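Thread: quick sanity check before group meeting

JM: Hey all, I'm pulling together slides for Thursday and realized we never actually wrote out the predicted structure for the chain we discussed last week. Dropping the sequence here so it's in one place. If anyone has concerns about the input, flag it before I start.
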Amino acid sequence: MALINKIREKSGWAIGFIAVGLGLFIVGSDIIGGPGSGGGLFGGDEKIGEIAGDKVTLKTFQAELQQTQANYQMNTGRAPAEAEMGGLRDQAWNQLIFRTAYQDQFNKLGLAVTDDELEDMVQGSHVHPVIQQTFVNPTTKQFDKALVIRYLQSLRSDSIPPQQKAAWQNFEQQLGPERLRAKYENLLKNTAYVTKAEAKREYEAQTAKANASALYVPFYSVPDSTVKVTDEQLQTYLNEHKNEYKGEDFRRIEYVAFSILPSKQDSADLYAEIKEEAKGLATAQNDSAYAAANTDVPFPGTYRPIGDLPQEVQSNIATFIEGGMYGPYREGDTYSIYKLADIKDDTTFSTRASHILFRADSAAGGDAEAQRKAREVLAQIKAGASFEEMARVHGTDGTAQNGGDLGWFSRGRMVKAFEDAVFNYNGVGLLNEPVKTDFGYHLIKVTQPKTNRLYKLYAIKKTITASDATRDEAYRRASAFLSNSRDLDGYRAALKKDPTLSSNVAERVRPNDNFVNTLTNAREIVRWAFNDDTDVNAVGENVFELESQYVVAAVTGAGEKDKPSVEAFRSELTTKVRNQLKAEQIMKKLGASVTGPLDAAAQKYGAQAQVVPVTDATLASNSLQNVGYDPAAVGRIFGIKQGARSKPFAGENGVLVIEVTGQTPAPEIADYSQYRNQLQQNNGSRATYFLAQAIQEDADIEDLRYKFY
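JM (edit): ok, ran it. Output follows.
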């Protein structure tokens, strides 16, 4: 188990099947089945998609999903919850894409992984990182190849379970695909070449500087409400920029949610129930068994120092007596009652303190300045100033907003110098001198005396949930609304009649989404929206039941993969077109050119115009101070001569007039290798992403998973 814990810590998701496969063979787990396992409904040859011309059956996908679920269970130690299944289905689907679409590319290039390479990855000179991190000699703390060989030899024994041998085989099978992909990506990365001219251009873009003044009229200075954008204008813009927008399968969904929240009566009923439970716990012969059988939230009945007790208990523990019942306390939606079963003394002490930290940063004046400030504030506190208020004003860590309170803690929780100062202090009160640690100087106030007592508590915790009556009422309201919303016109009319209701809009819901805006586990709604029988402007025939709310939904828009539409990009297109129209208004008011000082031109335009300085701009920066991201504006600065002025032009965030006031060319240098290496590295980093995008586009993937999940 020690090995499997290392895998969980070191591998994460990045190594995926490799890490988990290794974990499987080490522990010999037999993880099969789980939510959504194969057989029955999920064992057929129905088409669930197509990748590079190859049909993907439901049976094939389900087998891949089962392996993904098994991997998840090994990584986390538990079966995936339904909320996590969407991500696992995506992983399984992406693995199929890799095996099909990428394999075509490997075959075309003749790429392969030999048996010698695989052996080398396990016990040769280039051992896989996960194996190196797993088979570590406990004495040297270094990778030990002998441990790998010994384990491989043990697999030949008849005493090793077949599942464990199969798990090792599965691990080996994952090594080849990973090495193939690495070969392929490295091959593409190594084809990228940066010329001297490109390196020189990058050097100049980073080093040449310019100063300018900019007359800037931001788009937000023109209210959106004054600029009307029509669908015809949006369509025209889309037609003119069609290469920038790709179609996508999506649905626009409007919905009304009826929350199933506990009522006041539900809260009162639970309060009465837990008071009855308190009577039972008070007289129970077996405290532990009674509490465990009646609590909603487990609470181990172990001995704990005061710092490990719940907050509501800490402040009242001094009044508790053995055998006494305390509560109910309410925290959020949970009521708690406690029984103090026993108290005993321990060898470890706990205390409670507050502090004010003065960091000894060089930027803040260093050690001497931190000590000076600490002594100055200490003098103020001794003179009567509130420690808590001084902590809020001068504290430099996360405790400042709480008046410096650190809560209860025992030895081993703080740095040694801090602990020594606190635990060597008797009683409560302010320490006379600042205490120095690696973090800086601390003013410390001990707020509770030391104690070595341990407390054994049993607890029953009950969480408030909506009663059947409350759920029925929410469903009644949702059903009544639906009965008046058989079409979109009825939906809109029903909304107007009830001012307590509001319609929510999810602009772009995709076929495999598991959510609709903030509605989680909403696959039922998504599947309905993408059903072949569901038309645009249709309202769901039934109320959708989610975990904490009932939902009435309508499909009010749709987009198609092969046909970019205004509806798919309405929000983005509206912003673009509206800004174009605003730019026309602003430039018309400014005139074809701006003459005279920019300050005078800004004053003439009105309060919305401003003149902003631009200092040390570089072509590589893509942004300007006080203006924001605007590569076109940066380009203008370096495209005109010193002393020249541009005509008004529309930038990313507003209309600008640029006047260049100074230019500093990049000095000549002999060696551009630093910039060549930067570009080479950047190109290589992007290559993997763009390669994956290109392969998936070429594979012409059809994803029909939404029809089954």
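AS: nice. The two ends are 35 Å apart (CA to CA). Residues 250-261+467-559 form one domain.
JM: adding both to the slides.
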